[in-house]
Amino acid sequence: MSLVINTIVAIPNNKTVAIQDIAIGDKVETFNYSTQSGLSKGNPLIVKMSNGTGNTPISQNMINISFGNNSSLICSLGQKILTENGKLKTAKHFMPNDNIFLADGSTTKIEMVVMGTYQEGIHMISPSLNPTTSLKHGNLFCANGIIVADYALNLGEPDNDELTGLNPE
User: Fold this and answer.
1) Three-state SS string across the chain, please?
2) 108-122 burial, b for 16+ CB within 10 Å, e for fewer?
3) Which end of the chain is more exposed for a tag (fewer CB within 10 A), N or C?
4) How far apart are CA 154 and CA 34, in angstroms?
5) 90 in Cβ contact with 78 (< 8 Å)
6) In this structure, are residues 94 and 162 in contact, taking their beta carbons and an 8 Å threshold?
7) Whole-angstrom Cα distance, residue 134 to residue 165?
8) What would the mean pLDDT of 32-49 be, rounded to a whole number?
9) What is the mean pLDDT of residues 147-159?
């Protein structure tokens, strides 16, 4: 339920920042998902939780997901990512040719998934301190161009293959 340091996160005013540079009180761009509206940009929300190892690398099993626009995301096995059908899927269950949401609302195909032991610093953020299952309250954000669950949404959803948020309608 974490991302490697230097993962790029969208913040207000069309800017980006490395995840480890986001402090409590900073704002991040958020996203919502519903079956009626699909993916929509939410209001920028204030980060209430920002925690990680800093630049101190730890040895941890991680997933490197490469996707269509020559980009990738390295994350923990338990990190949840929004799929094209509006469901959250745990990173360890992704396969090539799965489709995931980009921040512009389009989708991209996963090209390669590599699990391995990485020596990286990790970080996690959330605009909420309470675990949630809702995809409609700003608990999705943009990391390296794709839509991922924040820490509160990762905690709220059980670790199954694919899940919808509780009543994404």
Assistant:
1) CCEECCCEEEECCCEEEEHHHCCCCCEECCEEEECCCEEEECCCEECCEEEECCCCCEEEEEEEEEECCCEEEEEECCCEEEECCCCEEEHHHCCCCCEEEECCCCEEEEEEEEEEEEEECEEEEECCCCCCCCCCCCCEEEECCEEEECHHHHHHCCCCCEECCCCCC
2) bebeebeeeebebbb
3) C
4) 18
5) yes
6) no
7) 5
8) 95
9) 84
Interstrand relation of 140-143 and 71-76 (parallel, antiparallel or unpaired): unpaired
pLDDT digit string, tens, across residues 130-145? 999 989 999 999 999 9
Residues 6+ away with beta carbon under 8 Å from 9: 16, 17, 18, 19, 22, 28, 125, 141, 142, 143
In this structure, the number of other CB atoms found within 10 A of the CB of residue 150 comes to 27
Partners of 32 in beta bridges: 40
Q: Residue 158's pLDDT is what?
A: 64
Burial of 56 (0-12, 13-18, 19+ CB in 10 A): exposed
Domains within the chain, CATH numbers bracketed: 3-163 (2.170.16.10)
In the numeric block, which tokens belong to residue 23? 């402090």
0.70 exceeded by the pTM?
A: yes
